[in-house]
Amino acid sequence: MKIRISLLLLVFTSAFFLSNCKKGEEDPRISFRTRKARLAGEWVMKSGNASQTFLSDTKPPFNQNFSFNGSKVELNETEAGGPAIIYTGAYSLALDVKKDGTFIVRENFAGSVLEASGQWNFKSRSADAKNKEEVEFTIDATSKGGTIGHIFNQQQITFSYKLIQLANKDLKIEALTKSFINSNGDRVSFSARYTFAQR
Known about the structure:
The chain has 199 residues and is mainly beta. It has a single domain (2-198), classed as Lipocalin (Beta Barrel). 12% of the residues lie in helices and 53% in strands. The protein contains two helices and ten strands; from the N terminus they run ααββββββββββ. The model is unreliable at 10-22 (pLDDT under 50).
């Protein structure tokens, strides 16, 4: 009887401890794998959306809204005072995250391909995020294409995403950043949300 009670106490204590390790909004309540082990793997984007707004003191706002279904993208562009322009094209995104802190990303945006590699790490706790709730990527090298004109890297060398869901086979991430482009105050706001599945 004492053994059974001790075993039950151990199970409840472990479950309580592991549930407190939950970081992302949609993370599993209990996981016996570390966040690093769960993030490592070959991920393929299944769906998502992204939005960019270019703001300037001298020009009207210019908006781009992207919708992804895993194999295609629909791009809706609008400029103040003008009609919406809609493009459709092929789109794919693959992300290979390795336990050694390196990554490879391949994005095909309507025939424009970016293949890049670099380093990744979890960001420390901040006012907006828990410890290991955000991951930062830094591109070290490109084997094909350039970082400008691509969506996932937010047209930057260093970019970050918040981990909304990090499970064994599922990954959801989102980004909301603002970057000043030049000394005139021209800037771009970017937001995105992606759902990935492991290969």
